[in-house]
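Re: the 146-residue chain
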Amino acid sequence: MSATIIVGVDGSEASSRALSYAKRLASLIGEECTLELVCVVEWSPYTFQTTEENALRKKHRQEEIAKAKERVIEPALKVLTEDGIKAEGRVLHGKVAHSLNTVAVEKNADQIVVARSSEHGLSARVFGSVTANLVMSASVPVTVVS
């Protein structure tokens, strides 16, 4: 029986802990397990842009995705492959919780592993944390690593 684990990564120390935990799970499950690394470049509808910024938006989005792939996904995939863990990776642009859940449903994943959000203050109270939103809306179990 195969198993797929979605891992939310962003290059932070916290996401490194989530990746380490997922790697340990994959090694316990065995070679039938695949880790799907997902880095989401967040899009916020609450930012206002000028006409010039809107004209350059697609180019900036592509640059952000390429940069995240180079800095976050590729190094992590290299380490996992060297350690004998099957892994794939992608960078998406959008809302983090929604994107992770969409990938989990698409891949028929067994669970999602993420790090605890470090949002504090007014924005966390008003909008909620990404982790909390994911836990409340996910279609599969979510493991939150502190």
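Residues 3-145 form a domain with the Rossmann fold fold (CATH 3.40.50.620).
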